[in-house]
Amino acid sequence: MPKNIKKRIFFGIIIVMDCEVIFMLIVQICVGSSCYLKGSQEIVEKFEKAVKDHKLEDKVVLSGSFCTGSCNREGVTIHIDDKVFTKIKPENFDSFFEENVLSVVR
Ligand code: FES
Description:
Layout: E1 6-8, E2 13-17, E3 20-30, H1 33-37, H2 40-53, E4 60-65, E5 76-80, E6 83-88, H3 93-105
Parallel strand pairs: 1-3, 3-4
Antiparallel strand pairs: 2-3, 3-5, 5-6
Bound molecules: FE2/S2 (inorganic) cluster.
């Protein structure tokens, strides 16, 4: 790898722009039927706000996903790279974000 290529390592995809290699955290929030009924729209909004508030737009990619078979009775399912998190609710979102997003990208 040429020395002039900057590399930031997170988990997830690699974006190459102007000889800069960037690894971004991929967050997929399930918007399947069960998760939708458990409040996935509110979780999406909280994620968008948290990413913006912490200025992580260049480090985190948010996307939706269909049901991944991890439905549960207590909350929304979120995939971050290859890890699956279930039971995410507005009440536990802040601690989830701190532990699984902020601590990884900072
Ligand atoms: S609807 Fe979200 S995991 Fe099934």
